[in-house]
Amino acid sequence: MDDNQSLLFALDIGTRSVVGLVGQAEGGCIKLLASDREEHHTRAMLDGQIHDVQEVAGVLASVKARLEKATGPLTKVAVAAAGRALCTLRTTAELDTVSRGALSPEDERSLELAAIQAAQAELATSGAVPDPADYYCVGYSVVHFTLDGTRIKSLIGQRGKRSEIEVIATFLPRQVIDSLQSALQAVGLEMATLTLEPIAAINVLIPPTMRHLNLVLVDVGAGTSDVAITSGGSVIGYGMVPFAGDEITEAISQHFLLDFNVAETVKRQLGGKNKKVAFTDVLGMDHKLPVKDIIRAMTPKVVELAQAIAAEILALNTAPPQAVLLVGGGALTPLLPEALAQALDIPAARVAIRRPDSLEGITGIPASLCTPDAVTPLGILKLAGGHSLNFINILVDGRPIRLFNLSRLTVADALLAAGIDIRALRGRPGMGLTVTVNNQTKFIAGSHGTPGQVLLNGQPAKLSDSLNDQDVIAVTLGTDGTAPTPLLKDIVTEPEPLDIKVNGHDYQLQRPILVNGVPKTGDTVLRDRDQVDFSLTVTLGQALEQLGLTPEPAEYVYQINGAERSYKVWPKYTINNSAATADSLLMPGDAVEILKLPPPTLEEILGISGSNANSSVTVLFNGVSCTVPVNRHTILVNGHPAEAAEPALPGSVIELSSAPNRQPIISDVLLAANFDPRSLPAAGKITVLLNGLPTEYTAIVKNGDSVDIHIQEL
Predict the structure, then answer these.
(1) CA angle (230 as vertex; 228, 232 as ends), nearest 5
(2) Among 8, 70, 68, 62, which residue's Cα sits nearest to residue 39?
(3) What DSSP string describes 305-329?
(4) In this structure, is residue 67 part of a structural domain?
(5) Residues contacting residue 342 through CB under 8 Å, at least 6 positions apart
(6) Residue 210, in any domain of the structure
(7) Is this model's pTM higher than 0.70 or not?
(8) Does 513 map to a domain?
(9) Contact, 515 vs 526, CB < 8 A?
(10) Which residues form the domain of 421?
(11) DSSP state of 647
């Protein structure tokens, strides 16, 4: 290009041929000054990918030399990468926004780039491409935003707990660019701008004013068929079918035993007015066959190509489009438009071959370029005349990064291409933890992260700042916050010690705090989901246990009716001289006494004491109340009679016998009243009265009866 930068040089390096165009920018349009075309001498490119750099460079040198004769030296060139290299993924990303307040453009941008990085991660594991490490994003479009489950157009200014995004991300391998770069450098050319072939084609045939229609542009080349789709005012997707004109040429070559170049020549003669085509096969035999016979032989491959293109269109568009525009040399393949219309189930008139007869923004197009295969090179030339580069070089932390400038490039695009996690710039807050204190849940937040910094050419920059060629970016990542390490004393106020006396000795009680059921000190570090329990009150039982003063019961052993029995006597307690139990609460200064009890009585160890031991009746004997047992127990201790109320000394041999249940009689009353018959006079008359009436010693008495003995001396 000349010094005034008005000359534009574009190269379309295709699988079959190289097309070079030189134009001049004039008043907002491009005037075409020169053009040249040359086919590859060998199959140096396959499916849009350079396989023989030196062979392709030789063709480029020839095209460049012929153009320079008309325009002067050419040093910078606009090129396009083949659409076959594209890989498109649809991914989502989420962002916790509960503590961010009103969302900013930076938040929205961060979420977009998080989705792109999610797409990169998916690309690395999906197996969709052979070497995902060499792919990077060249463009993406937002499908929709979601805030707390509701779809919205933009997150900026919104508030919510969780935001989500869905994007369509498109990736391109570095090797495509590297091979193009190598071929250009071999002929002394610098890659000034770079675009994608389907973008270049759609740029000239479907301007923004037509993109509200659901249109499909198919660039049928020699090695690939590139697909671009518009709808709703924008391009909604790009695709590629690794199946194009060379497959048709191969079908002719196989069927008629032809050299590939001969078969290509035969194919190109099928669309004209010729009724017969002459050729020589590899055996040296000459043929002259009707065109319809050759078309019939290749029809299955044409149908296969149409079905492959239709499948890609339906995969991207989910429904048949309104119309299909065919460009590229392969678009002239006989029966292809009809077969594609049938595969898409749309009217045949809705599939048309387009030629660049007249294009907005480009003038001086010669008749030689009014062909379907000239659409892409003209599109590359038109994009080369734009105000921004399509390809720029920058440095990120000292690493050279190439970026596709398909739209306004920002710092965020550079960080993404360099593999830097955008979210790492913010510094994540540390993970919080929860503890339960006396069944009440408490949340303890982690520390805030420290934000990082991005410098653009030495100055602080935002993710949304624009980039220019040769910019230098330096990145300092944010520091994540830390999880909290609270101490027990930070959560619970440790109760004051409790001073008491036990049996005259002074003690100081610590009121226990339990963590997961285990006593802990105030310096204990709490962990997530710990359970803390404590009480401000202390019972007598807890105090004695803490002091190690829990008394043991006194155990007594006896022989009762020939069997060994033991009996335990538990101590009793007083607090400030008042009876107490183990559940009694203690107060500061309380005096506790642990009382030792005497050995048990016979009635206690034999179980004959209390109201349930004997049933009895109460009578008046000689005017005095007397209790008469119904059951009469006989107790022998070490062979001697004993009363139930006597102490039972340890080691005693005790025998217990009981009379059967019966109604008490007068003689039982006398016995219960300890009446001694020997106290009666030797001579005298004794009368027993029951309720005032004379009776016998065997008369039955009942509760409340009155028994009297009258003595009459003779």
Answers:
(1) 160
(2) 62
(3) HHHHHHHHHHHHHSS--SEEEEESG
(4) no
(5) 306, 348
(6) no
(7) no
(8) no
(9) yes
(10) 394-432+447-484
(11) B
